[in-house]
Design goal:
alpha/beta, seven-stranded mixed sheet, two-stranded antiparallel sheet, 6 helices, 25% strand
Length: 215
């Protein structure tokens, strides 16, 4: 007999299918990664509901549909190198790790980076590298990237991230002045220039400049 988390996991996958997620590899990745490991114990009973949940440092773990949708839009393959801006709980990075060669993920809060790193280690995920840094600056030493995913909202796509996107690459990023006007946007770097495609309304925390420094 399946335990409650496994039953809830199956229920979530069915819900994602009903909402239009069709990529079988993305759905399998979500099925393999236990979301309950990435949420605060106080919210564990809600881990498989299709809702965002609060995490440490005033941040959130994204709604599973948004995680699946953004991942599907990245159109990943196993040879690609991905930059994630905004590690947060580490859940999105764990999903990405199942679908590409290497994930580099930048977080401005050391507390979040350490907890996410521990969760990834517990799952024996070895193709994700975490770093403390300024997400606006990306990660130049590892550029260019085949794909970039940004899990916090900016008014415009940061120039440094666009520079670090490989020719032919794709970025998925929420853009907008505030949480009531944000749109998830797909940016493709083509021979003719950058092509922006609006995808759907979203509500992300803001992409903040700089890393958090403690006294």
């Amino acid at each position: 007999m399946l335990d409650t988390d496994a039953q809830n996991q199956i229920g979530l996958i069915m819900q994602l299918r009903r909402r239009g997620i069709r990529d079988a590899d993305v759905l399998r990745a979500i099925e393999r990664i236990p979301r309950e490991l990435f949420v605060d114990e106080a919210f564990s009973e809600h881990a498989y509901q299709d809702i965002a949940l609060p995490i440490e440092c005033g941040q959130t773990i994204s709604q599973p549909f948004v995680v699946a949708f953004m991942t599907e839009k990245l159109d990943l393959n196993p040879t690609q190198k991905v930059l994630e801006v905004g590690t947060g709980s580490g859940y999105q990075a764990a999903i990405l790790s199942q679908l590409c060669r290497r994930v580099y993920t930048v977080e401005r809060w050391r507390e979040l980076q350490k907890v996410a790193e521990a969760r990834l280690a517990e799952l024996k995920i070895t193709n994700v590298t975490t770093i403390i840094g300024d997400g606006w600056l990306g990660w130049p030493p590892q550029a260019p990237f085949d794909r970039i995913i940004v899990t916090a909202a900016a008014l415009d796509a940061p120039a440094a991230l666009l520079d670090q996107l490989k020719d032919g690459g794709r970025m998925i990023i929420p853009l907008g002045e505030n949480r009531d006007t944000q749109q998830l946007v797909q940016i493709d770097k083509t021979a003719e220039g950058l092509v922006e495609t609006p995808l759907l309304p979203v509500r992300f925390v803001p992409l903040v400049h700089g890393r958090v420094k403690r006294d």
